[in-house]
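[job 4417] fold queue: 2 targets
>>> target A
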Amino acid sequence: MLALAYFGAHCRAELTALALEDIDPAHCLIRIRQETKKSRRERIICYGPNVTPVLANYFRQLKQAGWTQGALFRSFSDRNYDTPLSVWNWSKTVRRWALDTGLPQITTHTFRHHRLTHLARAGWKLHELATYARHRDLHTTQIYIHLSGYDLAGRIAAAVAETDRKVAALIFQEPY
């Protein structure tokens, strides 16, 4: 669940609404059904190959438990066995992890923020990030991206390197 939260940049409602039928392991694709989105638009997104073995193991566990369709994430507890995990179950689980690891600021949405920030650092354009995050408005996507001064300085330096070299040549009277 954590792997899909991060690699799919899912919000908690999308994640907890996933059904077994929404996952296409052969192509590493996830169908986000329109009824699970505020925008009411269906989307197909991908997940990385690193998630494939984790999902394959999870699917084996579900099959052994007799589940072949319906909610992807279910309770294995005695009290709520076979019930789909709710957004509240997911929130409580993440909160427990956060406190156990000494990182109380982590929430279910942290994984979405981190994934989009990591993709921005990798050079993804804003419109690509917005499409991946399933945002209609680019301003919303900008809220999710947390680039540091170090991240920006490196990109600026690379972008203006040739111009800086020419200016330096003029300053020091070197031919370029």
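>>> target B
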Amino acid sequence: MIEETLMAGLDHPNAAVRLDVVRVLGMVEETRALDRLRVLYPAEPDEAVRRAMAWAGSRLFQAQQAGHTTIDAVCQYFGVDRAVENTPDATEAELLRKLQDQFDRDLLDMKERQNVRRAGTALAAGLGGAVLGGASLGALAMAGAMMSSTSSPSSGLDGRPVSGATRVPATRPSDASIEVWVRRLRESSSPEQRAQAALELAQLNNPRALPHLAAAFLGDTSAHVRETAERCGKMLYWSIFYWEMEQSGALAQEMERRAQRLGKSLPRDVVPAPPTAPAAQAGPPVDPSPLDVGEILRKAQQERDERRRKRL
């Protein structure tokens, strides 16, 4: 999980990496990192990292006291809570299904009776055609068509949801190039362009953008850019967190827990299915390597070193 990877980065031997990790954890208000920061703070040898830890610790403590958790934020932001609250209980869903089946049977019976009536009407029209005339026959046909049209089911009774009470689908994190937008976020003289760059970085959904957004959140001269960077950093972090929850099966478990708190059980078609197992391979399965914080943040450190050399 992304928060576990970041917290592991607090032990990275490179102080610059630890600094970036602390800033990201503070920006996204990952309250589960608070205890780890408390443990590491007294022994942190780098003064800049210690100051960042003090800032992040204070921010996370306030968020914790306010009741903030990443899981709650993710479930609210991506509509998981809305989906759980608005989905009928499994028992209710079964009752609705039975009512729908009964409605379909009644509708079929109604149509069959109408067909019988129309056949009788056609026979009567044929016998009395000389008296009724063509116009009356047309009126009878129109009446039959109107009867047929009024027998169709109304929208909402065909099994489709009548409201938007569904969660937002999770999006796979990307490795899309972020250099252009990082440079604009860092170097553009226009606050509007820097804020737009933060938005673009969030939409790219690349976790490597997190330290750059954290740097803008803490260091940009524009309050608007700082606020945008914070919001985009959280959106990006939550998106990665949400995807990983779905892939690991943790999202299904969390939805079940939230449904139980409401006194309901969710139908199976609402709970996300666990990821499909990969096809059998000749050799033993190889676990994918976790996201390397050092790899994510090393480039940012190289860029800082390069700018420092240019100033000298």
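[job 4417] complete. Note on B: The first helix runs from residue 2 to 8.
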